[in-house]
Amino acid sequence: MRNLILTTALSLLMAVPAAVAQDKVGEVRVVHWWTSGGEAAALNVLKENLAKQGIVWKDVPIAGGGGTQAMTALRAMVTSGNVPTAVQMLGFDIQDWAEQGVVANLDSVAEKENWAKVIPDGLQKFAKYEGHWVAAPVNIHSVNWIWVNKANMEKLGIKDGPKTMDELFADLDKAKQAGITPLAQGGQPWQEATLFDSVVISTNGLDFYKKAFLDLDEEALKSKEMEKAFQNLAKLATYTDSAYSGRDWNLATAMVIKGDALLQVMGDWAKGEFRNADKKPEVDFMCYRFPGTQGDVVFNSDMFVMFEVGEDRREAQNMMASAIEDPAFQSSFNVVKGSVPARTDVPDTDFDACGKKGMADVKEANEKGTLVGSLAQGYGQPAAIKNAYYDVVTKVFHGQMKPEDAPAALATAINAAK
Fold it and tell me: What are phi and psi of 403, to 5 degrees?
């Protein structure tokens, strides 16, 4: 297995263009997985801002959703001494790399710009290591959203977003009866687990989610409440189309955009795809919190971790970190990306209706203590536990495990991964 991972890593590294093999002064080499249309458009905002400061951006894009392939390629780069300037990362991956002593200290930039006063504590937990800033948060994404095609809503006589799981099932039934794909879904483990994050809260409440997934309470993991959540997940699977298996998330979003499906359950990066297709909220599509989760924000945050580089590269690196946290950039980037700023002091003036709602929801959740990390997105537990979660959830969704057997299997898998 170790040889297989190394071979995969080296093959990915070899796929990186030769032009990015070495950085120059005033140059940043950036590893990321933002490759969809909406993501690429958002990233261009940062590239253009840095270009205005005379910094050349060398792109190392690696497709792969949550970044598993990116982390594999990164390991090969670091092992070979080919260290990038910055790497897009999520949650516990940041802490894992910081433990290895290969990331840069950003305290000088962070203290000068007062990051600690404007970045929520939930994000600082991951952007810092042993009290020192090692990453610059770009945004706050939340996963507990549903995105609905408005024309299909009107066609089906649906007046508003569902408030409960039963109302959601009723809306999906209407779509099925009308010959419209009810649920646009990509059959990939991370997507199914992202859906299940919301299902668990909707079924049993946020306190249960915290107990089961953040505290890893075995009684909660093996409970009847968890079984009910898995039953709801299995029922949701019956509303997908026959071709969902293996579908990328943005292709599922495209189904909603085109009117081929009623809705998608996905993080707010999906809104970047609607924007990229010139679709407007409350005109072409609607955004609602997943039923039963209003007031709760299940988050992930894209962060750029800065790696330890030579003195000749640090100025450009620090300028990139500063540019990421600039309030004007936080606004312009997140308007395009679909997420909300990582800073709480950015005005919502330029954001659309969904963006304004997202910012208000984050502010409320931050104040109430209902801003919680997504297990599916790497902000609930380390990678080994997240992957154990993926394994059980995807088996239930694909009909390979009965919902009544899933709670015990989940507890066993998580215990083995600790």
Answer: -55, -35
The domain of 293 spans 145-298+371-417
| Summary count for the chain: helices (H), strands (E) | 20, 15
**Residues 180, 254: one domain?**
yes
Give the predicted TM-score (pTM) of the model. 0.87
385 and 358 belong to one structural domain: no
Based on the fold, state whether residues 44 and 72 are members of the same structural domain. Answer: yes
Single-letter amino acid, residue 218:
E
Assess contact for 42 and 355: CB atoms under 8 A.
Answer: no
Distant-in-sequence, close-in-space partners of 81: CB < 8 Å, separation ≥ 6: none
Token readout for 245 is 């298996």
pLDDT digits (tens, 9 = 90+) for 345-374: 999 999 999 999 999 999 999 999 999 999
Could you read off the pLDDT of 290-328 as tens digits, one per residue? 999 999 999 999 999 999 999 999 999 999 999 999 999
Residue 301: partners with Cβ closer than 8 Å, 6 or more residues away: 90, 91, 123, 126, 137, 138, 139, 140, 141, 342, 379
Q: Are residues 238 and 252 in the same domain?
A: yes
For residues 167 and 212, what is the distance between their CA atoms, to the nearest angstrom?
25
Contact between 378 and 92 (Cβ < 8 Å): yes
CATH number at residue 213: 3.40.190.10
How far is it, in rounded angstroms, from Cα 82 to Cα 130?
26
Phi, psi dihedrals of residue 56, rounded to the nearest 5°: -85, 130
Q: Terminus-to-terminus CA distance in the chain, angstroms?
A: 20
Note whether 136 and 41 are same-domain residues. Answer: yes
User: What is the three-class DSSP state of 259?
Assistant: coil
Q: Are residues 163 and 121 in the same domain?
A: no
CA distance 98 to 70: 16
How does pLDDT run across 173-231, given as a tens digit for each residue?
Answer: 999 999 999 999 998 999 999 999 999 999 999 999 999 999 999 999 999 999 999 99
Q: Are residues 50 and 8 in the same domain?
A: yes
Which residues are CB-contacts of 131 (< 8 A; sequence separation ≥ 6)?
none
Number of domains in the chain: 2
